[in-house]
Amino acid sequence: MYDFKAEYQRLQTRFERFMQEYLEELKTTPAVLGESMAYSLQNGGKRIRPVLMLATAEAFGVEESRVLPFALALEMIHTYSLVHDDLPAMDNDDFRRGKPSNHKVFGEGNAVLAGDALLNTAFGLCLKECFKGQDEVLASSILCECAGIDGMIAGQSADLLFEKNLENAKEKDLLYIQENKTGKLILAAVAVPSVLSGNEYYYQLREYAVTLGRLFQITDDILDVTGDFTALGKTIGKDEREDKLTSIRFYSLDGARVQADVCADRCNAVLDGVKKDLSFLRDFVAMVRNRSK
Ligand code: GRG
Is residue 43 lining ligand 1, measured as CB closer than 6 Å? Predict the structure, then answer.
């Protein structure tokens, strides 16, 4: 019988094994570069993006071997963003996943380089896949767009712009940050396998992923107020101290919870229009809505 936790574990284990094999082959000179990349990649992430990508691929009949390199590239991009985000010049956090941040272990210079290297290596992985065909080219281009100036980096830039500048912020600015900073890598997790499957239900899947990305950021904002360090493994209450533009600032804690419920309902309503067994994608929404880490 289908069991969400067991399925999540199965997909995560598949991803971890693929990543481990890749890291065993990774040799850098000097060695510290590869060590700092591996430190952050292996530092206990939940792997929500690769698991979502593998699950979407399975639901739409895409072979695992076609999607695993993209899942690894996506996790590398996500990891680089966390390494750079933790730096003193950005969010200045000494902890990530309950362990010292990359720059606390390897120093700031090495952390900058580890992030740069993860991003370059991710696109190297995608470029190799492009030899397989047009769908791989399109998938790579989507991943690139989602990570860059029309995606995560734009969202992070807007996040910086509004920090301590809340009087000028409008709801559309909050939505822009949610959609890009957090949402675009979640969109990539669904859009890549959708493209590789031949784009059936692309628009429904896109709408599902965009809304799930917003839900993820809203729950992140809620956990920054209500979560605890042991579960989350990072400093709590920073958003408010640093005057960040978050859902809590805009809607209050209760209002943010309502927005989260609206997003969760919307994700499920969109999936109603897709004639496939998408139980895992539905349960994924509930997991994000109810998460404590
Ligand atoms: C520095 C270019 C650049 C971008 C940074 C992603 C990001 C943009 C900053 C991270 C800060 C943050 C709290 C973002 C909100 C959501 C988010 C991405 C949380 C972390 O993702 P999880 O929970 O992390 O999937 P794990 O640790 O499980 O991998």
Answer: no
DSSP codes, 249-288: HHHHHHHHHHHHHHHHHHHHHHHHTS-S--HHHHHHHHHH
Nearest to 106 by CA among 28, 17, 18: 28
> What's the gap in Å between 182 CA and the centre of ligand 1?
7
Residue 108: pLDDT band (50, 70, 90) is very high
Helix, strand, coil shares, percent, the chain, to 5: 75, 0, 25
Residue nearest to atom 26 of ligand 1 (CA): 45
Pocket residue to mutate for ligand 1, from 182, 239, 248, 292, most atoms within 8 A of Cβ: 182
pLDDT in tens, 160-182: 999 878 888 899 999 999 999 99
What region, left, alpha or beta, does residue 244 occupy, with left being phi > 0 and alpha being psi -120 to 50 degrees?
Answer: beta
Distance CA 97, CA 99 (A): 6
Cβ–ligand 1 contact at 239 (below 6 Å): no
Q: What span, in angstroms and rounded, lies between the C-alpha atoms of 229 and 93?
A: 12
pTM, two decimals, is 0.95
Give the span between the Cα atoms of 76 and 36, in whole angstroms: 12
CATH architecture of 4-290: Orthogonal Bundle (1.10)
